[in-house]
Amino acid sequence: MSYKVGQRVEVPVKECQGVIAYVGFPSFASGKWIGVILDEPKGKNNGTVKGKMYFNCAENYGMFARQAQLILLDEAGNRTEPVSPSSAGSNATTPDDSGPARARSRLNSSRLSLTGSRTLLSAPSTESLSGSLHERRDGGESLIPAPTSTKRASFIEKSPSTSSPPGKKPKAQDDHNNTGFVETLKPQFVPGQAMAGSAVVAANLMEEKLSHMQLAQENDNLKSQVHDLTEKVETLRVKRMQDKERMKDFEKTKLQIEQLIEFKTKVMESQASLQRDLQRARQEAREAHAAREQFQEEMADLAETVEMATLDKEMAEEKAETLQIELEQLKDKLEEQTLDLEILRTEMSERAAGGGSATGASSYEIKQLEQQNSRLRETLVRMRDLSAHEKHEFQKLQKDMDQKKSEIMELGRTKEKLSARVEEMEHQIADLQEQVDAALGAEEMVEMLGEKKMALEEKVAELQEAVSDLEALQDMSDQLAESSKELELELREELDLALGAARDAQRHRDAALETLADRELTIVKFRELTHQMQEQYLQLQQRVQSTESTKTNVRGADQQLAEILDFQKTFAETRAQTKAVDLELRRLDADEARNHVCHLLSFMPPAFLARGGDHDAILMLLLIPRMTQKTEILISQVREKYRSIEKIDRASVIRGHSVAQYSFRSRLCSHMYSLQTALSCFESVLNSCSPEMLLKAGNAYPEMAAQEKSLDSLIELAKRDQLDENLPMEAIEKCCAYFATMFSVLFGESTAVNQARLIVNGTRTLGSACDAISTDATAIKALIQGEGGDIGLLCQHVETTCEVIQQHLKSARRRVPRDHAGPAFSVGANLGLDKDCNEQFSTSYQHAVKIVKTLQYLLKSALQAITENGDLDTGLPADKLKEMAATSSEKVYDTEDLGPVATIKASLTVIQQLAANLAQKMAECENELAISGQTQNQQQSLEGEQLTPILIRANAARKESEETKILSRKLETRDSDIREARLALREKQEELSEMTLRKELAEKRFITQQHEHEMNVEQLKRKLEEAQNQLKRKEKEFEETMDHLQTDIDSLETEKGQLKEKLKSIGKKTLSTVGADSIAGSTSLTSAMDNKYYVQEINALREALSNEHLQKKKIMCAVLRQKLDSLEPLSSPTSLKALDSTIQELRKKTTDLVKDVQKTLVYPTVPDLRRKLPETSYHYLLERRRNIMQLKERADELAAQVRREAIKRTPGGRAEANFAVYPNREMAAAMRERKLLAAEIKIPYNGPERSFSVNVGTQELRKIHTLLYY
Question: CA nearest 1225: which of 230, 429, 176, 332?
Answer without folding.
Answer: 429
